[in-house]
Every structure is written in C-alpha cells, then in structure tokens.
Amino acid sequence: KVNLAAGYSNLLRDKEALELIKEVSALVSRQGYILLLSNILEISIELCIRSHDLKKAEINIEKSLKLLGNSHVRYVLYAKKWKAILKLLGTKKKKDFAEIEEVKADANQKHFWEVARECDFYKALIKKDKELFNFVFFGSPYWPYRKKINTLYDDEMVPPSSLDVVIGPSGFQSLKTKKPLSIFDVERGLYLQ
User: Fold this and answer.
1) Strand, coil or helix: what is 168?
2) Cβ–Cβ under 8 Å, residues 119 and 98
3) Residue 172 main-chain phi, psi, to 5 deg
4) Are 67 and 30 in contact (CB under 8 A)?
5) What is the pLDDT of residues 65-113, one digit of tens each?
6) DSSP string, 136-170
C-alpha cells in the first residue's frame, strides 16, 4: 500500500495517496518499520509541498531525518533533498542554491539519478529557468514524469513543441547555447496529454 501511495503521488492523485498514507501510517509506526515509515514521510512531504503546507512538510522532514539518523544513505538523501527544496520554497529573500547543489552532487556521486533530477526540477521551477526545465523535461526517459513536471509548472514554463539541437563533436547540443544536451525518447516527450 505504501508503493501504491507513492504511485498515486507520482500521478498527482494526491487524495488517494493521502488516504492510503493515513491507512498505513499507524500500523507501520507501531510495527517499527523504519524504512516504510521514512517512505511514508517522504510521500507526505511531497504532498504537503504541493498543497503549500510548508510547515507540515518541515515537521515531516525533521521526523524523517531523526528516524533515519546516519543510516540508510539513500533515504537520508531523500530527506535532505526535500529539506533543501523546502528551504528554497520557504524563503522570500534571495535564494541560496548551495544546499540543493550539494544534494545534487551527492546524488550524482551515488548514482541516484532521480534525486539529482528532482533537484534540477525544483531549481528550474524556483528560478523560472526555461533552459533547465527543458533539460529536465526532455532528459527524462519517463513520460509520466514529464507529464507530472509539466503539470506542476505555471503557464510560462511550458515545454516547446520542438527543441532545436545540433549534433556536435560531443553529441547533442543546444542550437541556441551550444551547451551539451541529454535527450531521451524525444518523440514521447513531445506527446503531452
């Protein structure tokens, strides 16, 4: 049921995800299943952020970090990712992207590509960086993820109907910036529904 809640959350079916989380949270907590509880907290954090309940998200992040301590590297990294994202979402002052860049570097070093991708996604969202958005959007091989990030963006951050690229000496490059691009399954990436 925890995996189903995660699936619902990824498909932006937040109500169903929340119902399942409520159903299994007490049982998982009573049984002492630390990793499942951490997973439930992570799903809850994302749901809280999407519903703009940043205070509850912060409480869940702290619970998760306390629960995990320094064990379970992958799950600690998930909590640190949300902590860095929440820090950026919660401040009205000049944004400091150092923490999210640190999490991304750690994720890349450990080959946790989904964490690195989420860092880029939220960085693009917060900075309104269309080029980074296109990198995340077209660089993801998973069309449900592309649909999810497209749904979470505002109207000005819509992926282009085409992406101007050239094949240079180091592979695909942006025609505009000449920076290298990673592109997967562009045909399906352009299919927005």
Assistant:
1) strand
2) no
3) -70, 140
4) no
5) 999 887 778 889 999 999 999 999 887 677 789 999 999 999 999 989 8
6) HHHH-S-HHHHHHHHHHS-TT-PPPSS--EEEETT
